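From the shared-data thread, chain only:
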Amino acid sequence: MRKSVILLALTAVFGLAAAVPANAATPPGTAPLDHPVWVCLPGMAANPCNQNLAGDPQVATPGGSFTVGYPASPGRVTFDTTRVESGASVVEPFEPPAAPPVDCFFVYPTVDLLSNPALQIGSLPPGPDDAAAAVTYAQIGPLLSHCRVFVPAYRQAPLAAHIVSVLTGTAPDYALGLEDVEQAWDTYWRDYNIDPVTHRRRGVVVIGHSQGAADAASLLRDRVDGHPDVQPSLVSALLLGGNVQVPIDRPDGGGSDPNAAFQYLPVCARASAEVPVPIGCVAGYSSYKQPAGTVPPPGSTFGLSSTPGHRILCTNPAALLTGAAPEATTPLDTRLPTRTLVQGNALLPNGHLTAVLLGTSLPTFPTGFARYPGEFSGACEFRTVPGGTASWLQLSGGDSLVGPPSSGGLGLHVDDFSLTLGDLTALVDAQTAQWEAVSR
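Structure, as tokens:
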């Protein structure tokens, strides 16, 4: 059985990271990095994501398969997938990237146990981080065949800082990490977003989870939302587990709503299958598997808003793909990372993600992912609750993978991406095609 059992103190890791203050100041004694540090950067030497500047495989693998490595650990892993359905399994080979037409800019969630670098003084940069690479592969690995992947390393508020914050009642400081993310974005936009062949701006998908979703939301607000030279290049934004607040009765803030995450970037919505898939918009959710007929109770970490006229963003990617109503229940294309992907072993079964997957049992297939199409169904729930609103992606099924229904807390936060990873990948593909059709 796969069951996420996170230390109680770690609830604050994701709850406090749900919003980065717009006016956050760089902590005293620190300074901007001399230059961005990258987990993955197309064309950099020994790119862990194995993409050259064009997005093609940087390191060829015999037989045409595609593998990736880790910055500080030996060995390579595959994104091949074991499809498990009706008691049978079959391997689905991963399609290597081939000059993907758009880019993905990914801000990974909280994975550092301790500060990286250990001494956060001056402009000391973060070092090679296998955990950051592992969560990148687990959450967006399949997108490597759909986009060039840019993943900045950033001086995030680590797990230890959040535990201290619980004990002391003080919030961790997210300003330094956000500064690193925005510096990396500025470098990406200046040096990499111009296509070397067409000399035109490339489309970009901005993606984040948890602390990374909060940073990505701030990045979008500061650098994209309402910027006429940048916003047209946004294919979409996928912000999961970040408590992104949006108006209830309109698609965006309209330029005058201080409580809306964005003023001009709309929520991704589609009236029917006859309407083109939306682009230039924001999608996201937090997943729960609530007992039937219940809502996440007060004190739950995600999905609750007390701001009148607003709610937390919830978009079911499977419903968006088919043109179904946001509240429609749809089958989900679930893809869980395996022990192989994170280089788990007998001592540390969850390998490089041990710190954030406490008590979680990963599948043991030799492939990088295990796919369970239709094992789960999901629907966005929108409810009025005492003091505000609740909105979340409600899951049903999959008891053997994530356990029975359970109310509140973190919900299925660590599984947010995995639960719909196949749908998210297909959504990026569909939005890319639509963006190319209207932008060229």
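Residues 144 and 413 are 23 Å apart (CA to CA).
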